[in-house]
Design goal:
Layout (H helix, E strand, L loop, with lengths): L2 H4 L4 E6 L3 H11 L5 E7 L2 H10 L4 E4 L8 H11 L4 E6 L4 H10 L3 E4 L4 H12 L4 E2 L1 H14 L14 H11 L4 H8 L3 H15 L4 H10 L4
Parallel strand pairs: 1-2, 1-3, 3-4, 4-5, 5-6
Helix pairs in contact: 3-4, 4-5, 7-11, 8-10, 8-11, 9-10
């Protein structure tokens, strides 16, 4: 039985944003999804931690710039004390410090506020399933940063047991394509893409999508 089949209850989500004009409409929109229940809306990191402690919570949709406790510090504390709770960042900021700070603190997803409702709900579901989703702008920024800091990286060989298709998928991740983009490029389903990603992550010891981008680059695939 798959995890999707086994799950009968909706995903419990906390929406965190210091602006009520953003927080409340976002919570209302997410509540329209049948498999998502917004269990709390928080104006700062302290309120997020309190909501998670009251639980259960599956995913926190996290703004970064909040008073009292910002999103990066809140993500760090959740990773340390509630690792079962996934964090998806939703912010207007896509600078290097914000992206690397959030991902380094343990966020599984990073979206800008240009993301639509479908993008946000897809990222929430993916994070709850242990997958990473990065906004295309964020992926491009990570690639640019990695290339600027390591313009000629030492080649790091990939495991010999990766299949040709798994190498193709890794190369496309390295180019910044989403799962949907990879599926369209290879003429396969998104479910098949997810299977290839899970397999290559396990074989190559890849932690998340940002790590996959780095591995694709050091293997000379991107």
């Amino acid at each position: 039985m798959t995890a999707d089949v086994a799950r009968q209850q909706p995903l419990n989500v906390v929406v965190a944003d210091d602006q009520a004009a953003v927080r409340e409409p976002l919570a209302a929109v997410l509540a329209l999804a049948e498999d998502i229940e917004v269990v709390a809306a928080a104006a700062n990191g302290t309120e997020v931690l309190a909501a998670v402690a009251a639980g259960p919570v599956d995913v926190v949709l996290m703004d970064l710039r909040m008073p009292v406790m910002d999103g990066i510090e809140t993500t760090r504390r959740l990773a340390a004390h509630h690792p079962e709770v996934a964090v998806v960042v939703l912010t207007t900021f896509a600078d290097d410090d914000s992206i690397l700070g959030a991902l380094g603190a343990g966020a599984r997803g990073y979206l800008t506020k240009n993301a639509g409702r479908q993008d946000i709900t897809r990222a929430i579901r993916a994070a709850a399933a242990g997958q990473s989703v990065l906004d295309r702008e964020v992926q491009d920024r990570l690639l640019a940063t990695a290339r600027n800091k390591a313009p000629a990286p030492d080649r790091q060989p990939l495991p010999a047991d990766l299949t040709p298709r798994e190498r193709e998928v890794l190369a496309l991740i390295g180019r910044g394509l989403s799962n949907r983009g990879i599926a369209e490029q290879l003429f396969i389903s998104e479910a098949t893409v997810k299977t290839h990603i899970n397999n290559l992550f396990a074989k190559a010891g890849i932690r998340d999508r940002a790590d996959a981008v780095r591995r694709a680059m050091t293997a000379g695939l991107a």
